[in-house]
Amino acid sequence: MKLQVKIEAKTSYIHFGNYFSKAIIIQENKNLYPLIIVESEEKVKIYKKIFLFLSQDLREIQNEADLIELFFDNSGISIISQEKLREINEYELFKKRVIEIKKGENYNINEIIGKLTSFGYNFSEYGTKGSYKKQGDILSLVNISGTKEYTISFWGEYIEEIIERERKDFNGQIIAGKKQEKESIFFGKNEILKEEKGKNILEIFREKEIFIILDGLEFYEKYDFIIANFEYFASFDIVGAAKIKRKDLEIFDVHIQDVEELKKILFQRKSYIFTKNEKLIQNFIDYNNIDNCFITASNSSFLKSFWTKDVNYICDDIILKTFIKRRIRKSIAKDLDLLLKINSGDFVVHIDHGIGIFNGLVSKELGGITKEYIEILYKNDDKLFVPTTEIERISKYVGGENPKLTGLGTKEWKTSLEKAEKDIEHIAEELLSVYASRKIEKGFSFEINTAKIQAFQSHFPYIYTADQQKAIDDVLEDMETNKNMDRLLVGDVGFGKTEVAFNALYNSFLNKKQALLISPLVVLAYEHYQKALERFGPFGLKIGILTRLETPKKVSETLKKIASGELDIIVGTHKVLSEKIEYKNLGLIVIDEEHKFGVEDKEKIKKMRINIDCLSLSATPIPRSLNMALSGIRDISLLREAPHGRKDIKTTVSKFDEGIIERACKKEFERGGQVFFVHNRVENIESMKNILQKIIGDKKIVITHGQLQGEQLENRILAFKRKEYDVLLSTTVIENGIDFSNVNTIFINECQSFGLSQIHQLRGRVGRSEREGYCYLFYKKENLSDDTIKRLKTIVKYSYLGSGFELAVKDLEIRGGGDILGIRQSGQATEIGINLFLELLEDKIEQLKQNGPYIKKDKGDISIDLNISALIPDTYFNGEIDKINFYREIETIRDKEELNGVMEEFKSINPDFSPETENLFNILKCKILAKKLKIIAIKRVGIHYEIQFQSHITVEELKNFLQLDKEVIFHIVSIDKIRTLKKDFGNDREFLDYLLKMFDPGEEIKVPKKIKLKH
């Protein structure tokens, strides 16, 4: 396996690839780099696992003896952590740990054994590596690598003979090789030790090759020290978040979305696949006649995919995502919970039993029936086992840091829920009235001219992503109804939100309605204006703009055109919200970054939107608007998919480093680009300019901040946009969605003072073209709190395209809720968890929608308790967390066809599709169908099967259900409960199949011969 990489001596490299790709590079260059230094003992464990998978020639330096032997034996690769290296770094200690034994001199045999033991040797009867054995006057030693064996013969304390033998491993058997008599043995060389007296161990290695791996926030703390101490080495490399030199390495992370894309790259070049699903992939390769593909069985969860110029290295991180865990599109209301992944030890909320601790998955077998359960720990070490088919009753707790555990079998949880419902009554009065009334009041019903809309879309120079098309369809559907649209469109910067909005604006024009496009910044308004002129020009729309930069004469002309209906679209800032403006026929408002407007402007927007369709655009929603959308108060569309050609933004976290600034700016300027430098302290921004000027020489810097006069601020930003300056040194006023396609490097100084959403928004200013974007986050070490470290690690982790939505939710999790409700923090929200609190709010909205008596919906999911083995084998997943989160995804599906699609995908790629897995999918399918029939439970009761309905089912609905099939006799137990005899069915699986066929006549399921369905 030849890896085409070039590693140059005395060169530092940016953090690249992953543990696996680094390990392969080390493996391929092992003759150059016998000593690998990593950051911590934890990283040692990771690399050991990977190397043991790749080959057997990695040894861990655990003590002085290992290090001494490494110095004189360069075979294989050795690895050591910085902590361990510091422990054994002093030369004098090194010298004390060397043993020299000479023939013809006196030694105490027990003192030799004691010294050997002190630096890592152990007694072994069988002569294992690094061992000793005493037999009378004979002392036998085997060196650490196991390549040599020494026999020392004593006469009392006098050494008569020293024999050295080579040892070779032949098919697992140790064979003694050539032997020779030695005058002395010495684990070192006397002359080198004399020459190097007084130096530390690393200086002894100065002629050796050192390969250093560092990553993480701590890298820059150690970088200067390493450079200062290692500068005298003959050759060394640092692989970490250091100086940028990625080109020579040609290592790239793999981003594959589906099976078709994977198949395409497997055909293109040689591929090595490392997977626990060996049969699955082999079948796939054979079926598609893919050559030049080599599969290796691996159970390692550390292996991550990457590729080079010539070779693909595909691991289970890609296999599981593309083959097994297809991302399931579902109602966004469930995404909040699904994005907050549940890990072992996390607090969780069970809708019926309260707050506990997630303790993992357990399998239980009873009477030959195997099921999986979620184990939850409650107060007093009580345990609750929840079937995985009822996993939807569980969500991750978001709220206070350490919530109180609920007592099982007590009234605690019921009391907490009752208090929360009272709290919601008060909050709903303030928070929900506007949003609920918008849904209740009738609005204008836009007609949809499909032919003209398609003609408009055909002029768009790019192909819509699937998310864009879905969002456009959602918006047009909203406009077609007589309910006032109130949709939030969320998408990362440059993901095509504006084009979705333009479709809505064009549809408004087709219906002879005026439309507003409002933004919080003048510069941003002008940008929208220019784009609108370009996009709508061929279709004859008349577009005007209103900002404070227009002359009084121009403003007067625009107002007249608005009142007469001459203008179809008005672009502007808060100026368009003035009550003095008379709109002839306003039908649509599009608001960009609504949360950036002031309180007064927000109130004006709120009044205007009550009986007008409204579309809000946001790159990263603040938690309040996010959760209002997720709780059903507002509709939401997500743009997750990056446009073609966009690349992830490379994000580096570091202490302030002038060297990094110099190198990164030089690279950006060399490709004709410009740079953002965010410094959010107006009081010393001039001093920062002086520092930057010294670093970048004659390049021009312009300063912007919020204390400048409005016109002065806009003029400076526009001058930078016209490329009159090379660097824009600014506070966060550049945070909003201004498009600077020529700026692809950004520095954010003192990033510890920013929130996640703010950092993400700022980072989104770069990488908006096909050029790769770079973001450097500088921090002050002394100011880093635990929350800040967590935030910085999160922003690096979520640096891929489309991560804005996940970041907003992660911010919510880290902050523990904060002022999520916008008006005030509810104590009861943290008592029961914010997710459940929002569900109760959703109930309140439903209550406001209904004209008649409000029927409270049943909480929880449908329960199916039958003796049927139902689970998915562990081999499909990287680990337990992956598995449980996949369960959570598939069990939120509410559409039978979507569930069938997932099941068929499983079957198509896995010929060994187990009956237990099929049972699980059939149970989930039965729950989907049963919910439509108002069923809440299906179970065995003695000699019967029992079906229970919602408490408010009507007599007519029950009668209609019984008419579905008359072959099986159901007895009515009560208005909401019926039973049938078990004896009519061979087993519980047959009863489940019968129900599936009964609930859905189109379902292709075999039923028992003695049961004949009549439809």
Give the structure's gist in a few sentences.
The chain is α/β, with parallel strands linked by helices. The chain is built from 35 helices and 42 strands. The longest helix has 20 residues, at 412-431.
Largest beta-sheet characterization: 7 strands, parallel
Radius of gyration: 35 Å
How many structural domains can be distinguished in the coordinates? 6
- The total count of strands amounts to 42
Shape: globular
Count of helices? 35
Q: How much of the sequence is in beta strands?
A: 15-25%
Overview of this protein structure:
The chain is an alpha/beta fold and 1015 residues long. It folds into six domains: 11-92 and 198-239, Rossmann fold (3-Layer(aba) Sandwich); 100-186, Penicillin-binding protein 1b domain (Penicillin-binding protein 1b fold, 2-Layer Sandwich); 254-324, no CATH class; 443-630, Rossmann fold, CATH 3.40.50; 650-800, Rossmann fold; 874-999, Aspartate Aminotransferase, domain 1. The chain contains 35 helices and 42 strands. The chain has a seven-stranded parallel beta sheet with strand order 27-28-26-29-30-25-31, with helices on both faces. A six-stranded parallel beta sheet has the order 1-14-13-2-4-3. A hairpin with a 3-residue loop joins strand 20 (347-350) and strand 21 (354-366). Helix 17 (466-480) runs parallel beside helix 18 (497-510). The two termini are 63 Å apart.
Q: Keywords, please?
A:
Penicillin-binding protein 1b fold; globular; disordered N terminus; 42 strands; 22% strand; Rossmann fold; six-stranded parallel beta sheet; 37% helix; single chain; seven-stranded parallel beta sheet; 35 helices
